[in-house]
């Protein structure tokens, strides 16, 4: 298990100092960042898919259309089941979300759906016809005010190993079971045998290739001060196409049941690059 270190009220001055001109939201004062008053509300859509699933290419096409409409607010991760891209963590995630009754389906911010067209209200994982409406609803949840929790990501590559620093800023405290989850995604993964593929070869996008944190996240305290971060070191990425890799980090609340979990905010960056608070 990788060594994970939590630092509170401490930051790499190099990261923020050298990028100060690129962002108005981070100001360096004595190596401690000034946390913005608010953050962009972003939404994570976790799509459940598989190469055996004849309707999954249609789901991927629908998801592509939603991302095209909301490129700065919607982040997606494709979680495969029953094929060569399945991860060991799938069963734990499925149980956490109350089960996956069909494919393709998705969880959006891990909260129950509302306003569905086919009686799926209250379900955390639901069918593709209800994805866009619920994604938009969650994007607009803070339309009267900006989100109070945000993330920034430092990522560096050396000798095929990835090092990450995930920065969390918050303008409100939260005493619930808050955790930081980190995904490694890969784009343009060529399918081996996609049922119902519209073309050959067929390529999968935003494929969940690795869960860098613990499956349901590493504990991170948002109930003191306004800043905390975790670091992840020596992540071997030699088996992937590095130019197609992305890191997705999100703060999620682990509730008492599948319908009481929640993702508070999410951030994404290409490996080897940095993403400031926004």
Characterise the protein shown here.
The protein has one domain: Immunoglobulin-like, CATH 2.60.40.10. 13% of the residues lie in helices and 35% in strands. It has helices spanning 13-18, 56-69, 90-96, 131-139, and strands at residues 4-8, 28-29, 32-33, 43-49, 74-80, 105-108, 125-127, 149-158, 161-170, 178-186, 189-190, 203-204, 207-211, 218-219, 227-236, 245-253, 262-270. The strands form five sheets. Strands 10, 13, 14, 16 and 17 form a five-stranded antiparallel sheet that branches. A four-stranded antiparallel sheet has the order 1-15-9-8, with no helix packed on it. The chain has a four-stranded mixed sheet with strand order 5-4-6-7, covered by helices on one side. Strand 8 (149-158) and strand 9 (161-170) form a beta hairpin. The longest helix is centred in the first third of the chain and has 14 residues, at 56-69. It is globular. It starts with a strand and ends in an 8-residue tail after the last strand. Residues 1-30 have low confidence and may be disordered.
């Amino acid at each position: 298990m990788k060594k994970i270190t939590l630092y509170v009220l401490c930051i790499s001055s190099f990261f923020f100092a050298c990028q100060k001109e690129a962002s108005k939201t981070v100001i360096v004062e004595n190596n401690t960042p000034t946390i913005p008053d608010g953050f962009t509300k972003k939404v994570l859509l976790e799509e459940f898919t598989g190469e055996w699933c004849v309707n999954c290419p249609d789901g991927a096409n629908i998801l592509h259309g939603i991302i095209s409409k909301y490129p700065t607010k919607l982040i997606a991760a494709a979680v495969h089941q029953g094929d060569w891209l399945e991860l060991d963590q799938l069963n734990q995630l499925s149980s956490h979300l109350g089960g996956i009754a069909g494919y393709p389906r998705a969880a959006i911010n891990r909260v129950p759906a509302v306003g569905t067209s086919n009686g799926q209200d209250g379900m955390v994982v639901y069918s593709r016809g209800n994805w866009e409406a619920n994604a938009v609803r969650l994007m607009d949840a803070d339309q009267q005010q900006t989100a109070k929790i945000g993330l920034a990501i430092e990522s560096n590559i050396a000798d095929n190993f990835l090092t990450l620093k995930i920065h969390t800023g918050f303008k409100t405290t939260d005493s619930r079971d808050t955790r930081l989850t980190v995904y490694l995604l890969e784009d343009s993964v060529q399918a081996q045998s996609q049922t119902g593929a519209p073309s050959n070869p067929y390529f999968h996008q935003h494929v969940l290739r690795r869960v860098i944190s613990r499956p349901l996240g590493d504990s991170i305290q948002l109930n003191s001060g306004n800043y905390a971060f975790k670091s992840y070191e020596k992540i071997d990425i030699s088996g992937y196409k590095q130019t197609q890799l992305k890191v997705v980090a999100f703060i999620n609340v682990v509730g008492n049941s599948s319908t009481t979990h929640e993702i508070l905010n999410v951030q994404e960056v290409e490996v080897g690059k940095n993403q400031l608070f926004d």
